[in-house]
């Protein structure tokens, strides 16, 4: 009986070893840039400011004139998008929320890692390519293809990300990386 219980406990422990918990938090950042989204015959462009400090993400999308087009906030309780007309949309995930409210998905859960040139921890990557400095240059993860462009200065953080998923393309150009607590 004891050996059967020991075998069962070992089997249960072995089965749990392959399970991974939630991804580790990504490093805080504050980025300013430009965004171009295209797909299905439509295009959208805006400037953005993204403040990320776990568990909160705040992204402001602005017109070229500086008018706020949308404000996206995501935390442990879910995602809220406030449109320019002050209409609020809520959902559990930012990707589903942006798909519904803006017409295109923003993979925020993964992008908070990809933005800093890192793969999502504890998530399998179908392809990983690195440049001679060891920085990510191409990544396939969660069905998204991500290509990176870095400044010629050799900086560790990317200057541009090109994402593609099922015909949807997102280009993010980062104009400035700032300290996370900068207002």
Plain-language structure description:
The protein has helices at 2-17, 94-102, 108-114; strands spanning 29-39, 42-53, 56-62, 68-75, 78-83, 88-91, 125-130, 136-141, 144-149, 160-165, 168-178. Strand 1 (29-39) and strand 2 form a beta hairpin. The protein is of the alpha+beta class. The protein is built from three helices and eleven strands, in the order αββββββααβββββ. Residues 1-23 have low confidence and may be disordered.
Q: What is the distance, rounded to the nearest whole angstrom, between the alpha carbons of the first and last residues?
A: 64 Å
The CATH topology assignment is: outer membrane lipoprotein receptor (LolB), chain A
Order of helices and strands: HEEEEEEHHEEEEE
Helix content: 10-25%
Strand order of the largest sheet: 6-5-4-3-2-1-11-10-9-8-7
Major β-sheet annotation? 11 strands, antiparallel
Any idea what the CATH superfamily is called?
Lipoprotein localisation LolA/LolB/LppX
Radius of gyration: 19 Å
Broad CATH class: Mainly Beta
Shape: globular
Number of domains: 1
Chain-wise SSE layout:
Blueprint: H1 2-17, E1 29-39, E2 42-53, E3 56-62, E4 68-75, E5 78-83, E6 88-91, H2 94-102, H3 108-114, E7 125-130, E8 136-141, E9 144-149, E10 160-165, E11 168-178
Antiparallel strand pairs: 1-2, 1-11, 2-3, 3-4, 4-5, 5-6, 7-8, 8-9, 9-10, 10-11
List keywords for this structure.
183 residues; alpha+beta; outer membrane lipoprotein receptor (LolB), chain A; eleven-stranded antiparallel β-sheet; 17% helix; globular
Outline of the structure:
The protein has 183 residues and is an alpha+beta fold. 17% of the residues lie in helices and 45% in strands.
